[in-house]
Write a structure and sequence with these properties.
This protein is an all-alpha fold. About 75% of the residues lie in helices and about 0% in strands. The protein has 16 helices and two strands. The relative contact order is 0.15. It is a multi-pass membrane protein.
Length: about 375
């Protein structure tokens, strides 16, 4: 069976984010169902977050050529499915810790690998990345909504069983070939190791810019629900605000090529950085629902436009052999470690500052803007 690159990638994003829409919001509920204390749940989730960053960095960067990306996706999808089946066994804390470590290590590279396939196809045949990636966002919203219903019906065990179904779907979805093969060519250079990429000043600036922008979302991910509840906003309305942000994200992905297809990464990241300053400053002072609805619409700029800027940089403004390593660094540093580090910072600040902690997030936007304006392509040496 053969699928077009657009269909193959769309299905992969759907399957991955169906699982992510279960794991991210509801895995703590399954852990609670195993009679773990909140402190132990926090330790396991923290271990998983750190291990995911390491998996993205150290496993993804082992891939040296584009031809290796799809076999790696198949192997890691199968390994992840097998490991999640291990959670069906009678659990002890050592077993839970071991399964969490290994599954997080192998699960996390699937996202940068799929994005590496996508950026390669953007460069190779010009696919519309936004219209491919938006299906992942749709899948996340649908699955996270359905899981609230399923857990109400069947309890916390529904989390694991639904997750296993999505992992099986993801593995099966990787098996068809793509009608356009990923090919570097015999004369192409092997992928540059990540530690060598970090020696490039232009690449470091790109990474620091994205770390500032994505790290600015930490207070939102960790404490927006608590803060908005303190303003008297109901849990159902908070769920709507989160979903509304993702709806706008989908819309930006859909129109991305038409609106931003000719823009450089520096421009996209600069606009995202300005939006970071506006969104989080507004969130710090907003007290009514209509204000928050307007501010949440800016998720399409602070997250989506920044992500599109990163994809543009990796697919169009780097030598081909820098792509996979840069994708891994972006996933590990900007999408994982920067958010985790800022969550630790905002955790202490939120107790003292309350909603004004979002002003600290806005300050990261200023830093990002100063960096983004000087993000430049890296040319292939003559």
């Amino acid at each position: 069976m053969t699928l077009s690159p657009t269909r193959w990638l769309s299905l992969f994003y759907i399957h991955f984010f169906l699982g992510w829409g279960i794991y991210l919001p509801f895995w703590s509920l399954w852990l609670k169902g195993q009679s773990l204390t909140p402190a132990l749940i926090g330790i396991l989730l923290g271990v998983a977050q750190g291990t995911r960053a390491m998996g993205s960095l150290f496993i993804t960067t082992r891939i040296r050529r584009s031809e290796q990306l799809m076999p790696a996706a198949r192997l890691l999808s199968l390994a992840t499915l097998v490991l999640f089946c291990g959670f069906l066994l009678p659990q002890s804390l050592p077993l839970l810790l071991g399964l969490t470590l290994i599954s997080s290590l192998l699960y996390s590279p699937l996202m940068p690998i799929s994005d590496a396939i996508a950026t390669r196809m953007v460069a190779q045949i010009g696919i519309d990345y936004g219209k491919v990636r938006l299906w992942g966002s749709v899948a996340f919203v649908v699955m996270s909504t359905l899981m609230g219903y399923f857990t109400g019906l069947w309890g916390s065990q529904a989390v694991l069983w639904c997750l296993l179904v999505t992992q099986m779907m993801m593995f099966l979805g990787t098996l068809p070939a793509m009608s356009v093969p990923l090919i570097d060519g015999a004369a192409a250079k092997a992928s540059t190791p990540w530690h060598q990429l970090l020696k490039l000043p232009k690449l470091r600036r790109f990474l620091f810019t994205n770390m500032a922008i994505q790290g600015s979302h930490a207070a939102y991910y960790g404490f927006s629900a608590i803060y908005w509840q303190s303003l008297g906003i109901s849990a159902g309305t908070i769920g709507f605000l989160w979903s509304w942000g993702v709806v706008v994200e989908v819309a930006v992905f859909f129109f991305a090529k038409r609106l931003f297809g000719n823009k450089h990464a520096s421009w996209l990241l600069s606009i995202a950085a300005v939006a970071v300053m506006l969104r989080w400053t507004g969130t710090a002072f907003a007290s009514s629902l209509w204000q928050l609805v307007l501010l949440q619409a800016m998720h399409g700029l602070t997250f989506t436009l920044a992500h599109l800027g990163a994809i543009t940089y990796i697919s169009k403004e780097l030598p081909r052999h820098h792509g996979v390593g840069t994708q891994a660094l972006y996933s590990a540093l900007a999408l994982s470690l920067s958010v985790a580090a800022m969550m630790l910072v905002t955790g202490g600040l939120f107790e003292a500052l309350g909603g004004k902690v979002f002003l600290v997030m806005a300050a990261l936007g200023l830093l990002a803007l100063l960096l983004a304006r000087k993000v430049r392509p890296i040319e292939e040496p003559a």
